[in-house]
Each structure stands twice: as C-alpha cells, then as structure tokens.
Amino acid sequence: MCAATAQSASRSEELTLKEVISKYSNVSPFVIIKSDITRRSFVYTERALGALDKTKHQHQQRVLIGSNGDGERAVPVSLLLRDGTSIIAMPSPHAKNPYVVDEIGGKLYITDQGEIVEEVEYWYKPHYYDKFTSAGTPMWQVASARPQRLDIDPNSHCHFWHKGGACKFCNINANSTRSRKESNIQKQLQAQDVYETVREALKQPGAFTNLKMSSGSILSGAEIFDDEVEMYIEMLQAAGANFRQRKFPSTLVASAFNERQLARLYENTGLMTYTSDIEIPNEELFAWICKGKHQEVGYREWKRRIIAAVDIFGRGNVTSGIVGGCETARPHGIRDEAEALKVVLEEAEDFAQQGVSMVHCVWVPMQGSAFHNQETPSLEYYVQLAKGLSDLRVKYSLNADMDNYRKCGNHPDTDLDRGRPVAG
Amino acid sequence: MTTINEEIAALLRDSGVSKVLATADMQGVPHILLDQSITINDEGQIVYLELTETSQTNVNLVNSIWFKRRVAVTVSTGKETYQIKGTPAYSIICGPVFEHYYKQALERNPDYDLSTVWLIEPEEITADTYAHRRSREQAEHPLVMHLDRLALGTI
After folding, report:
1. Phi and psi at residue A145, to the nearest 5°
2. B91 close to A (CB below 8 A)
3. Would you say the C-alpha torsion A366, A369, A374, A375 has a positive or negative sign?
4. For residue A7, pLDDT beyond 80
5. Stronger pLDDT, A341 or A8, i.e. the higher one
6. Residue A3 pLDDT more than 90?
7. What is the pLDDT of residues A257-299, one digit of tens each?
C-alpha cells in the first residue's frame, strides 16, 4: 500500500485558489486561503516589512518546530485574517511559488501574481513580551503568544533524533540548535521563569483563552517518557500556581504516555486536555516517517495510548494531530491523492468512534527536516481533508473546543467547526 | 460600504435606543437579537459585541463573513426607525481593539467574557417607520390598496 499507486495529477492540472474556492463554495474561503498560504508559503515586500512596528507587533518568538524567517531581518511572527483565522506560517525565501504580503494604501494584503487575495494583520505583542523574569530571562523566550493562546514549550530538544529516529517532517533539533546559537534561546525552561511569565501574562485582560505546553520527546526514565512526564508536572504546577482554581483551560501536546503516566499528569496538575500526535495515520507510513516512535513504542501502541487518554481526560478532551499531506511523501507515500485521503479519513473515523478528534496541520517541507525537498499535495487535497475531518466531528458529536481556531489556529479542520459548532 | 448619516449615527451611539440584529443560518432560518449596546465606530462601521462564542448569532455571523451573507440592524426610538443592511467585515478576537472592548464589556458587567468584536459595514439604509413604508408603497405600487379608502366621505 505504501508503494506508489496511480500518479497524482500533475502540478499544471491543479486548480487555482480561485477555482478551488468556487468549487468548494460551502467551505470557508478564509480557511482555503489559509491552507494555501501555509502550503505555498509567502514572502514580504519591503513596504510590508516597513509596516512592522516592533513596539506593537511580535517579531521574535520561541518556536518549537519551524523558524522565524530565514534571514537576518526581523519579520512578523505570523498573520491573522479578517475573520480571526490565524495563519501559522513563516516566510520562506526557498518557496517556489510564494504568496506576497504587501502594504497597499495603509493596509496589509496577501497578494498573488499582483492581485489582492485578502487583507491580513500582523500578530500583536502581548503585554508581557518585553519584560524579564527575576532570573533575567526575556519573557518572550519563555512563552510564545498565538493570538489567544499562551504557548510554553519547556524543552525544545527531541530524543528521537538520537540514532537517526527523527520524524522526517520535523526540524525541532535543527531549529533549537540554531535558535540557541543565533538568539540565545535556551533549550530548556526553568519552572520559576514559567511561573513568573504566566503571572505576568494573566494581567492582560482578555488576552488568552488557553495555555498549551509541548516539547520534544524525552525517552529517559524508569519507563520510557517518565522524565518527560515529570518535567510537565513541574512546569504545569509552576504555571498553575497562578490560577485560583486547580483546573484551568490547558492543553498538553506530548508523547504518547501510558495510563499510569496520564493519570499522574491529570491528578497532579491543572491540565484539562491532552493531545498526542499520531502524525501519519497509517502504520506502514508511520514506521517509515516516524521511525524512532515506531521503534520505541510502535504505531498500534501509540494509537492505543491516545485512545486510552479519553478515559482520563474525557470525550472531546483528547485530540491527535496529523501532518496533513505527509502521507503522500516520496518515495513510499501514497501518491494518488484520492487514495491517500481515503486512508487518512478511515483512520480518523476509527479515532472519532473512540472519542478522539483527529486534527491536521498543513505539511510544510521545512528546512532542517529530512523532507525539506518534497512537495505538498494539491490545495484541493487540503480542502477535502479539512472538510472530511470536520464532518467526522459532526457525525460523531465530538467538539474540538480544546483545539479550536482561537486556542490553536493551526488546524484548518477545526477552523471550519466554528461555522457549525458541536456541543460537548 | 455606504455612509451612515450623523442623525442615524447618533441613534446608534445612544445606549437608550432599541437596536435589533437579524441574522440567518445557512438554511435561511432567521435569528433575532435585541442589544442596545450595538453602536458605531469612527470608521462608520456598526460594532456588535458578542459575548458567547457558540451563540446562534455568532455562528450566523461567522457564516456571514465567510460567505458574504448580509445581516440587518434595526435601530428605533419608537417614533423613528431605520433598517441598515450590511455585511460583517471583521471578526476581531485579539489585539488592541479587542482589548478595548473587552475592558468596556467588563465595566458594563464583571460577568461578561467578550468573545468577538464584530464590525459590520453598512450597505443599505432605509427609513422604516410605517409612514415611510406607506409612502414608498404608494409611489411604487399605486394600484395596491383597498377601494374603501377612496370612497366618498373618507379622508
């Protein structure tokens, strides 16, 4: 099944953005635009960069996976559309057919071949951004701010990279090494810094709806991931000390922990929801693309643990992310897009039946990852994938409030849920 | 976007004046909301503060901004009534404008947890009292009326 089947349509036969929006007239055009900008990437004009105001806009960020531009010059951290949809993407000078962000008549627009596509806005700085912890750590290096989410990623080094087990789409260790060298961003956070930064962030009225933690996998401990669990408990307790109630809207995006580890996390912290990414929802492709995870845990056990988390966190409070489109990667991926989509949605349905929402991001073959020279599937593929995943939540009455457009913003499928929310 | 004149803008700014927001879902089912806090900003856009993320109005507004579906705002003192049709242009969920209205909502009621600041751009404004509607009807459809109204002896 991993071997190439029928070849997908050639690039020249792909529908344009306008054609896709017209064809899928019941899918939000904002979400389609977001997917395509992420897929094709973008660059800034000089005028657009001139509109970056460092006193107002975020221009540097602690990023776990990806980067914050590839040049020397400060660039906006990311973009926001008129409807509140986030675009979690970075400019790329390596992109073959990027969109262009331009400043026209005092407003910022995404343009394509000189035509305006949509208005965009740069992400604003939260009030804590330029402050320092008592240890002298810049708070922007402790917590990143998506438009309504506080991101705290306590460890930006992944043990799966040791012995060649890195996921082929991921650049976490390359990125954290570079961030350490170029921006002096530490790979590991200190709990006191986390406590002080969250305390400061909560002073800003209405700024955040969720606190999310994530990190590279830590394999050490009596059992695999035990040390990762202990790190999260320490960090979540530090963050949680700022809330007047024990549980607070929060998400962990972490390795697939066993039931004992999940129970420890739930019982000892304010954590309310849990995500562990299955990444590639197919066992054979997972074994190839996520080699370390497959060797150490295995696809079936990784999946079983995610589903077991529903018993601890509750239905609707567990999601699993996939790197949408990566299942088509060469040479072992499913090259026929219709077949790839079928495989992904069938597995997503199996998760949904057991109370887990599958959510997708748009695969970006980023620098520093093994797949940096690959091509993503067509825009149409992403529209069908987003709609298919969102439809499954309607079918199985699963809500994705924990991972919605304003709590995460990196999932076109949960962006769509906003137009037809499912009660939890 | 069309311009709202100062007289109607003043009514929109007056928190004592009744304002109604009408939206429809994707099947066309209407939904009406009475909210006197609806106002107008310096750019001439109608401002609606949504307090509930998954309310029917908010869901309808999301679909309106996505698919360019119009909504209507009626503003009325009893004597004067205007209907403004327009399209949601911005759904603001963060940033300084959001923070401004978030604080304003909190001042109004400490229990309010603002979800979204909606900016609706007006496209069509009509005076909507009975006198205005009747005047338009007589001008556009002079044959549509009951004959007894024209009988000798009536005013």
Report:
1. -120, 105
2. yes
3. negative
4. no
5. A341
6. no
7. 999 999 999 999 999 999 999 999 999 999 999 999 999 999 9
Q: Domains (ranges, CATH) in chain A?
A: 24-122 (no CATH), 139-417 (3.20.20.70)
Contact of A64 with A107, CB cutoff 8 Å? no
Which of helix, strand or coil describes residue A189?
coil
Cα A44 to chain centroid, rounded: 22
Rounded CA-CA distance A354/A367 in Å is: 36
CATH architecture of B6-128: Roll (2.30)
In sequence order, what are the residues at sequence separation of 6 or more whose Cβ sits closer than 8 angstroms to the Cβ of residue B73? B19, B20, B21, B22, B38, B46, B48, B83, B84, B86, B120
Q: Closest partner residue to A84 among B91, B99, B102, by Cβ?
A: B91
Residues of A with CB under 8 A from a CB of B: 25, 28-30, 56, 80, 82-84, 121, 124, 147-148, 204-207, 406, 418-421, 423
- Give residues with Cβ within 8 angstroms of A186, minimum separation 6: A137, A141, A180
pLDDT number for residue A376: 95
To the nearest whole Å, the CA of A232 is away from the closest chain B CA by 28
Which one-letter DSSP state was computed for residue A342?
H
B116 near A CB under 8 A: yes
The model's pLDDT over A132-171, given as tens digits with 9 standing for 90+, comes to 999 999 999 999 999 899 999 999 999 999 989 999 999 8
Q: Determine whether the interchain pair B63/A419 forms a contact, defined as Cβ–Cβ distance below 8 Å.
A: yes
ipTM, two decimals, is 0.94
- Omega before residue A249 within 30° of 0, cis: no
- B51 Cβ under 8 Å from any chain A Cβ: no
* Residue A185: per-residue pLDDT: 85
